[in-house]
Amino acid sequence: MRPPADQLSGRKSIMRNHTTYPDFTCVLAEREDGEPVGFAYGFHGAANQWWHDVIYRSLSEAGGPEAAMGWLGDTLEIAEVHVHPDYQGKGTGRAMMHALCDGRPERTSVLSTHDRRTAARHLYHSLGFVDLLTRYVFPGGYERYAIMGAALPLKGAQDAARDA
């Protein structure tokens, strides 16, 4: 995602902290020579996690606490999905999403992505994710995001298991 250099230490700290969350899982996509070309990770979302609490409040305001609990009450929060540009559009992201989500015990999965027409957003929609909030700006931020959610297992999970 090429964040500004001044954000790198903060992002590394956030990612390091995420590894301590319940049921943290990370997947890595590699070339045949072992060179990484992508990674994705997530964890069980719960109260007192910053992203979870911020989105819970926003979903409650938009649709009521029942809607927020329906999406976030038992969820896999996907925090990061990154694919090297040379490997985008070739199934790497889809394979990582299935590897991350398939077999999880949670009822739903939620994530945030830039609120633009991107390959990532197209991928998420094709996996069954729907827009929960759009044009969303996180507290202290300025970029617009889409908050998306999907029921688990993801759309195409049986096909992914068969093709593995």
Automatic annotation (TrEMBL):
Asked if the keyword Transferase belongs to this entry, the reply reads: yes
The record ties this protein, via Gene3D superfamilies, to: 3.40.630.30
| Entry keyword Transferase | yes
An example Pfam family from this entry, by short name, is Acetyltransf_1
What are the entry keywords?
Answer: Transferase
- State the source organism's domain of life: Bacteria
Give one GO molecular function term: acyltransferase activity, transferring groups other than amino-acyl groups
Ranges for the N-acetyltransferase domain? Answer: 1-148
Q: What is this protein called?
A: GNAT family N-acetyltransferase
Lineage, uppermost ranks:
Bacteria, Bacillati, Actinomycetota, Actinomycetes, Streptosporangiales
